[in-house]
Amino acid sequence: MAALRARDDYGNSADLLIWLILGGLLLQVVAQCFLFLERKQRAQIVQAAGVARGRVARTIREIERKLFHGVGLAAPALYYHLSKHRGWPRRTCFFLFAAITAAGVAVDALRAAGLINIESPLLRVAEKRRLSGCSFFAGGTTLAVRLARRPAVAVVALVFLVVGDAAAALVGVSFGGAVAPAGPVRRKSWEGSAAMFASCFLCARYALFDVGVHVAACGAAAATVVELFQPLGVDDNLSIPVASVLALDVAIALEGGYG
User: Fold this and answer.
1) What does the alpha-carbon distance between residue 42 and residue 37 come to, in Å, rounded to a whole number?
2) Phi and psi (nearest 5°) for 194?
3) Is there a contact between 79 and 145 (Cβ–Cβ < 8 Å)?
4) How far apart are the first and last CA of the chain?
5) Would the pTM count as exceeding 0.70?
6) Where are the alpha helices (DSSP H) in the chain?
7) Which of 53, 61, 70, 71 is nearest to 35 (CA)?
8) CA-wise closest residue to 12 among 158, 249, 203, 141
9) How many Cβ atoms from other residues are within 10 Å of residue 248's Cβ?
């Protein structure tokens, strides 16, 4: 089994980001064409894909939300660029993301308190008067950058949050059957969790090709369990990247990857 060549080695994480971003842009084009259609036509397309009639409206709303969340790939892409090509140390990257997070959370808190008016159809009802998922996403990004011992680990953990969470939501909402008796809301499906594990595992295995397959499995399992159970009720936009970084780093350390 190949040992890590260097702690700042990114493996295939650059290629992974490029493919995901290109794929995301293509999906955005397709989605905009889809959303331009009449409501009845959209419903027919979703039903033709195998989604039950009663789930069509919710599936379409979830597609709109997750397409917006795809913008989150900008975070690991920015970290990769600054660290790899600009030579910024992790500490400097951390302070930059911390500053962005602080500013974003401050604005979001003012919105939640009703002091400024920022309306978005993508906000969930529960987010109208509390911090939105974007604030927790920014916090999770900042902590991932700070905690990860290898930059590639932070990149992969953030990809888990964008890609894995989207896979879980879309598959769960569209095709989920048996509800897993877990988490504070108890509405997660086993199908959604399986989709999240599979997508996270494939991303990690491709990006971190120079470590054992069990590293990808541990990271994917940690992300999936946290998304499913939401321990302590912590928003999974914050807990997924943190848990994933810790799991990946521990798995790499156990195989001697950090010396």
Assistant:
1) 6
2) -65, -40
3) yes
4) 14
5) yes
6) 13-36, 39-48, 56-69, 74-80, 90-112, 133-147, 151-159, 165-175, 190-207, 213-229, 236-254
7) 61
8) 203
9) 29
Cβ(195)–Cβ(214) under 8 Å?
Answer: no
**Whole-angstrom Cα distance, residue 240 to residue 160?**
8
Q: Angle CA(42)–CA(46)–CA(47) in degrees, nearest 5?
A: 115
Encoded tokens for 177: 């059957």
155/119 Cα distance (integer angstroms): 30
As a whole number of angstroms, the distance between CA 162 and CA 206 comes to 16
Q: Compute the distance between CA of residue 32 and CA of residue 213 in angstroms, rounded to an integer.
A: 37
CA distance 203 to 147: 20
Query: pLDDT tens, 50-97?
Result: 888 888 887 877 777 777 778 889 999 999 999 988 989 999 999 999
CB atoms within 10 A of CB 8: 13
- The answer to whether 80 and 20 have CB atoms below 8 angstroms apart is no
What whole-number distance in Å separates Cα of residue 238 and Cα of residue 88? 24
Taking each helix axis as running N to C, give the angle between helix 165-175 and helix 190-207, from 0 to 180 degrees, rounded to the nearest 10: 150
Radius of gyration for the chain, computed over Cα atoms and rounded to the nearest angstrom:
19
**Buried/exposed code over 44-53 (b: 16+ C-beta within 10 A; e: otherwise):** eebeeeebee
pLDDT tens readout for residues 84-135? 889 899 999 999 999 999 999 999 999 998 888 887 766 777 788 899 989 9
Residue environment code for 135-156, b if the CB has 16+ CB neighbours within 10 A, otherwise e: bbbbbbbbbbbbbbbbbbbbbb
